[in-house]
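[agent] plan:
  1. take the single chain provided in the ticket
  2. run structure prediction with default settings
  3. attach structure tokens to the ticket
  4. add a short note for the reviewer (M.T.)
[agent] executing step 1
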Amino acid sequence: MAKIIFHLGTYKTGSTSIQNHLFDNREKLLERGILYPASVANANRSLGHRHSELAYRFNANEDVATPKRLIDEVREAGAETVILSSEAWSAPRMALHLMRIVNDFRALGYADAHAVLFLRNAVDYRVSYYRELTTNDTNKTGYERFISRRRGMFDYQFLMRSYRALFGDNVHGFEYGKHDSVKVFRDVVGAEYFSDIPLPAKHFNTKTIDAVDVEIFRVLNLYERDHTYAGEVKARLSRLLGKKAEWTERVDGDHETYPAFYAEDLAKMLNWSEDRVEALLQDRPHRGRRVADLEPAIMGILSDMDAGVASGATLARRVFRRLMPG
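[agent] step 2 finished; step 3 output follows
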């Protein structure tokens, strides 16, 4: 029976490395009966050769769930296995598209449908996803509001219920960070197909940014400034910051309180032990001052850089005196 494998993400779990690895080796894989479609793959390597445009265009009413160019590629290849990959399918608003494309592929003869997803600690996931969207030019809102507007996508039980409804027992869930994501995914597909294909040496999108970096990007996004300002802003902030304080985007009470039996039900759906699920859901201690308090100082520095006058720097110094007395 022909098989289709949907790699669903989630975000920030090694997806770019998986996508680029499959794309780079698509010719060898096709010789072995595995198609990683190129006709609908993102051309931007830094973001991953992913198939997200399928979901985004469908949601924007710009295309059908499974466009003709993809159907033509699948039919021409005649592959026994098709692999599609997009973190977008881990967002609840993309559930309709996922359902449609799964059904379309079943009609094409790919009735053996599987889903693969990687899950990381819920707090780490929220912080990492916030940082990713802020760094990549789009997010303008602070952490607390950003998280509260997207609770569904961080609700693993909610996601798993949707996936189970579509894929039944063919949902393969893995803990991110326990093992190499690319290797784990290759094992799901079938390690024998990759026997002479080395694992990638480089992992993509492993950015070393901290809460202060992300707040600078957020303010630049908010005031529609180019990210090329970030380095100079960070340098001027660093002279004021010194080593007097730590900073965090998190706020007290931002960790979700899960209802009774949540972990137990999730463990059953993932076929994990409850200890593994508890580690997935547990809070992470955080400390430091709220990084959102730096917004006036960052704006002062931007004003100073733009106008070449002392007023911006003066504002920044006043902010720091208020935040860190003494």
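[agent] step 4 note for reviewer: The CA atoms of residues 152 and 229 lie 34 Å apart.
[agent] ticket updated
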